[in-house]
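User: Hello, can you help with two protein structures?

Assistant: Certainly.
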Amino acid sequence: MTDEVGREVARRIAAVRGRIDAACGRAGRDPASVTLVAVTKGWPPETVARAWEAGIRDFGENRVQEGALKVGALAAAGIRPTWHLIGNLQTNKARLAVRTFDILHAVDSERLLRTIAAAAASPVRMMIEVNISGEAAKHGIAPVALPSLLEAARQAPLARVEGLMTVAPLVADPEESRPVFRRLSELGREHRLPYLSMGMTGDFEVAVEEGATHVRIGRALFGGRPA
């Protein structure tokens, strides 16, 4: 990867951080309360290394096996960021996931939660994915099911639920996503959960204004995925 590409990645990161800072300013929030999770699905370890050099310390992967390969490659180079699994997790990959990632964003069933806890040797940091919009194509539990899943987590000693995650509908105007983010924020306060993983390239500023603590950004940092 050329120095020119590295400089472009650094420029994009600075631009996104500036937009996060501005959104925090509008909401009266401390920018340090928002974690920028760089989504590197489809990108090689070299791209992760360039983002690390530019100051990124949190990376998100959608697929367990792809993430495991990158975690190993980067660790061999002395790069050890916080790794987030942000994609849907199948129960048969739970054991590899808990060995690979530092936090799982998309736990969406009691069966998955118990499988993760059974595969773990130490407490697993996780967030519950909530389908706020109710779209049939999206993963996540209905808001009404959240209390029972949180109770199941309390019965699983190695399941450490730290927050909630959602994916807003794909819309032309980010303002249309505001009610989704606001509702997740309300649920987080109701259940006293400190983290809210919400907001992507097209809508992260609105998510920050509504309380996001983790924004998952890929395209705005790296451009379109490589072929």
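That covers the first. Now for the second protein you mentioned:
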Amino acid sequence: MRMDDIRAVMDAAGSNRAVIFGISEGGPLSTLFAATYPGRTAALIMYGAYAKWIRTDDYPWGPTREQHEAAFNAYEKHWGTPIGLKTLAPSAANDERVRQWWAQFMRIAASPGAGITLYRMNVEVDIRAILPTIRVPTLILHRRGDRLQPCEGARYMAGQIPGAKFVELPGDDHMLWIGDADSLLAEIQEFLTGETPMLEADRVLATVLFIDVVQSTQRATEIGDSRWRDLVDNYHQLVSKEVARLGGRVVNTAGDGVFATFDGPARAIKCARAVRDVVGSLGLAIRCGIHTGECVIEGDDVAGIAVHIGARVAARADPGEILLSSTVKDLIAGSRVECSDRGSHTLKGVPGRWRLFAVQECAR
């Protein structure tokens, strides 16, 4: 049994007793170990885990067997590509670096046949009868919008394990390290030590780039929902590729908008110009806004007044236009970027008046 691997590793490491942490399909495995070897289990922690992965009359959560079969076929056909990211890590599904990493990870981790065999084995797992036998301190963590493992299944497990603590966290990502991992780690630290860590937000100077599709509602109406979704997917992939190429990071791709950050305004401007060129091949027009300021970094999220200013600058741009705040204009003084003054404006929700500048030329 795979459970014996845990014991073998502990023996080899000279570990008599340990906290067992099971992630996703590691949850059932860890649960079986805790039930079988309670004396060697200091505590049991699970994240994104499940007791059963097939929807049935007595377990109304998760995919049906038919849905799993369709997934088997898709994974076998597209193994080694970014397949599954929209389910596993929707917040990063259009991040080109994450897409490349995931595709490479799949190719290195297993062959298509071995991967599907493991997938099929995990689908057949059903440890519901084991849950009431757990007699060790247990913490179950789950993100509310997890698209792979429904939160209801985790809540069910917590109700079946005596004394288990269940913590439901915001977020849609199944992959633990995507999204707000700090909050998950804080819950684990508090559970094991009784101490709650102070999670201080990092503050950094960053350049924010906002990109919006012009007249997106009208275009969606013209071509229909299905074709529009495909078009937006292609658009997001093209944008993410350009952002990654120029050293930026996609923070959010809500709707047809893109929010990215860069370590300097010149890269952000180059990216905006490149994106404007490539999305033209899709028949789309965009508007862009760029601002540089202090941003608050909380996990994978980026917030702060600088973000709001960047979004408001973008909202002021005309179709095909790249607008800069005066802060960015000052920072690129002496560069090859030529700008024209667009006058002084009020930005919704931002105090004072802001002078904006439109990019005319920039070095490629």
